[in-house]
Every structure is written in C-alpha cells, then in structure tokens.
Amino acid sequence: MNRILTTKRLILRPMRMEDAEAITHWVSDRRVAEMTTLIPHPYALADAVEWLKRLVTHDEHHIHQVFAITLSESGELIGCIGLHRNETAPWAEFGYWLGVPFWGNGYATEALSEILRFGFEDIGLRRIEACHFAHNPASGRVMQKAGLHYEGKQRLRCQRGGQLFDRINYGLIDEDWRAFSTC
Ligand SMILES: CC(C)(COP(=O)(O)OP(=O)(O)OC[C@H]1O[C@@H](n2cnc3c(N)ncnc32)[C@H](O)[C@@H]1OP(=O)(O)O)[C@@H](O)C(=O)NCCC(=O)NCCS
User: Fold this and answer.
1) Where would I find the H helices in the chain?
2) CA 101 to chain centre
3) Ligand 1 center from residue 141 Cα (angstroms)
4) Smallest Cα–Cα separation from 55: which of 37, 82, 29, 27?
5) Ligand 1: does its nearest atom lie under 6 Å from the Cβ of 180?
C-alpha cells in the first residue's frame, strides 16, 4: 500500500523483511530506543522480525504506513518513519527514528516534511500529530522545523520502562500546512 517517496537526499520506501538486520543494528542503540515508548531495550533481531510481521498483519481498521528512510546515494537504511491512523479518521499520528550516526544532518526534518506532504496531499488527511518526551527536545525541534505547532504539555502522560514522563504535543492541520509549505 505504501508508495515510494523521494526527497532531495532520501528515498522513503516500504519496509521489507530483509531490513530486519539494519533495523536491529540502529535500534538496539539505547539512545534511539530510550526516546520512544514502544521500542524495547535490549533489542534483538527477533524483535525486528516480529515488528515487521506485525506491520503487514495489522488489523483492518488501523492503517500503518511505515517507510524505511534510505539514503538515495547508497540505498542504506538509516531510519524509519510511519503514519498511523484509523481508516475512518481524517487524522494520523507519526513516529520516527534515525540511527545515531545520522543525527544532526536534517534527515528527520527532510523525511517528516515529505510524510506531511504525503499525508495531506496524497491521502487527504485534515490533521497530522505527534508527541515526544519532554526530555527529547531534538524531536520537538524537528516537528517545529517541519511546520507543526506546539499544542501543550501533559504532565506524566507517557511512560517507558515503568517510569512516567511529561509529554509534549504537536499538531498541524491541512490549511496551515498549505500556508507553511508555500511560503
Ligand atoms: C529525533 C531524531 C529523529 C532527530 O533526527 P535528526 O535527523 O538529527 O533531526 P534533524 O537533523 O532534522 O533536526 C534536529 C534538530 O534538533 C536540534 N537538537 C538536537 N539536540 C537538541 C537538544 N538537546 N535540544 C534542542 N535541540 C536539539 C538540532 O540542533 C536540530 O535543529 P536545528 O536544525 O535547528 O539546529 C533523532 O535524534 C532520533 O532518532 N532520536 C531517537 C528516537 C526519537 O527520538 N524518535 C522520536 C520520538 S518522538
């Protein structure tokens, strides 16, 4: 169901089972996993295989459009970005991660900007949103740079490893995205 999306430096393509090793390589780094609610740590190849299997067997009402973020020059998988939605809802939530060696090069912003375009233009969504741990300002910065609006902090609204954290919410509606992407 996923298309192949391209940006200046990246190709966003559907995940495939052969990606399990690369995913494990990047995600098993604690610095990646600890900023997410769902990625376990330690992380083994079997976790990646299970996750990839679940991507294709999701229940019929929940649509997960998950893309491998790859470098267009080499084809190397450097991360992952996904849109998650209920088939009847005009909104979606996104999530992403990049392997540590690739941080700080603008890749997440580049991938997210294309995912926003895909969501609003190609799918016709009215709203796209996400959240991050309050102690992960880099993710908030990516969201700001891609045009999302800060929508507030919820105290102790997310957890990882039994610990509760404050959650920072961001969102964007289609008309604001159009205004942002044409200026
Ligand atoms: C969040 C993540 C995807 C960002 O990827 P990236 O490719 O480095 O992002 P970009 O290079 O596009 O932008 C990062 C921005 O954050 C800024 N930043 C980095 N560390 C920061 C910090 N501690 N505080 C504030 N801003 C910070 C960078 O300076 C940059 O902003 P700038 O361009 O204005 O200088 C990556 O760090 C990651 O995978 N983290 C672990 C998983 C994760 O957090 N996923 C998201 C869960 S909500």
Assistant:
1) 20-27, 30-33, 45-56, 107-117, 137-145, 174-182
2) 17
3) 6
4) 82
5) no
pLDDT digits (tens, 9 = 90+) for 71-80: 999 999 999 9
Question: What domains does the chain contain, in order, with CATH numbers?
Answer: 5-182 (3.40.630.30)
- Which pLDDT tens digit goes with each residue over 128-140? 999 999 999 999 9
pTM: 0.97
Report how far apart, in Å, the C-alpha atoms of 18 and of each of 52, 53, 156 are: 10, 12, 37
Which one-letter amino acid corresponds to residue 87?
E
Nearest ligand 1 atom, CA 79: 39
Q: Which residue has the tokens 């998650």?
A: 84
**Could you tell me which residues come within 8 angstroms of residue 100 by beta carbon, excluding any fewer than 6 positions away?**
26, 29, 31, 32
Which protein residue's CA is at the shortest distance from atom 33 of ligand 1? 106
11 token code pair: 């190709």
